Amino acid sequence: MKKPITVSITGAAGQIGYSILPRIASGALFGPDQPVALRLIEIEAGMKPLEGVVMELQDAALPLLESIETTSDLNHGFAGANWALLIGSVPRKAGMERKDLLGINGKIFVGQGAAIAKNAAADIRVLVVGNPANTNCLIAMNNAPGVPADRWHAMTRLDEDRARSLIGQKAGHHARDVKKMTIWGNHSSTLYPDFEHATINGHEATETIQDRTWFETDFIQQVQQRGVAIIAARGLSSALSAANAAIETVRSICELTPADNWHSVGICSDGSYGVDLGLVSSFPTRSDTKELSIIEGLTTSPFAQAKIDLTIQELREEKAMVADLLRP
Ligand code: NAD
Ligand code: LMR
Fold it and tell me: What domains are defined for the chain?
């Protein structure tokens, strides 16, 4: 058996936690021959329900599940972590924007960033799912001295997958045929799903779907507002699809990206595409299994650039709102 990979997961007793844990413990992140050691982190109020989740994981007798630790102590929770999935935080309710959660959730990521820096393994990589994901990631990253900026990721994969699914439905194709779908900027209602570079079976999506009005209006709006639609229907925010997107994000960071595709993830900007250095923004990325790099050299039309400017401006505003949570 291989040495287990340690995965720390915050908010493990929540909705996303319930969807993601059995999948991680069944090999969905690192493959069918890679054991995992889970460190499940909850606040005190979540410890009792977490006990029940642990009982269920035990009852499933999963062959790859090496060990489970539960804790509300961050130092213990991130000890030796190779991956940290920062899910734990409050979800929004109907009528809220995700950034309305900054006041409640932002501060959670100060202590978590510091505890990761102090306790995690040298190869730690982090995915922030809790909303608003980009700016929470910015906060954690800025409070984790010594952990390189390229280890931090914020989840925009759910938006990418939503966009691929919508384009597939419109074109009469499966979502798997839709590739190179970039989400630019923030995981928020300003995100820009870049249909101009997307492909369907290797052809430009805009060639197959000759309906520019649909792309510019209904398509963008549906991707931007899908989270709201799910809250309206379920009375709860997305969980099954969010858990799936978190798994796919980690896989696309760890696995070689095929030449005909790329994936969207929020990462610390190196200034590419004019995005302010240090903002956590979603970009098109490709992995060589060791490093994740931004796809360079894409041309952005005036329409796309105006949308990208808007979402980057929102990230700047969110950064200003949490200035007191960022280390000098
Ligand atoms: P949930 O309320 O079902 O679960 C959240 C869990 O986090 C709870 O068990 C709670 O006790 C725990 N928690 C709260 N504060 C914590 C802390 N400081 N440390 C550890 N645990 C803590 O919520 P959910 O549906 O699982 O969603 C979790 C977060 O993910 C929300 O912020 C939601 O908006 C976000 N989300 C993001 C995306 C995305 O695409 N980025 C998608 C879906 C949901
Ligand atoms: C989503 O996109 O479904 C999540 O970010 C939850 C939300 O608040 O919309």
Answer: 5-154 (3.40.50.720), 157-320 (3.90.110.10)
Question: Which ligand 2 atom lies nearest to the CA of residue 230?
Answer: 3
E strands in 142-206: 152-154, 178-179, 182-184, 192-194, 199-200, 203-204
Residue 240: name the closest of 11, 20, 7 by CA: 20
203 is annotated as an active-site residue: no
- Cβ atoms of 171 and 206 within 8 Å: the answer is no
Closest Cα partner for 183 from 267, 299, 298, 283?
283
Nearby residues of 66 by Cβ (< 8 Å), 6 or more positions away = 4, 35, 36, 37
Residue 277 CA, ligand 1 centroid: distance in Å? 28
Ordered mean pLDDT values, 10 residues apiece, the chain (328 residues): 96 98 98 98 98 98 98 98 98 94 96 98 98 98 98 98 98 98 98 98 98 98 98 97 98 98 98 98 98 97 98 98 89
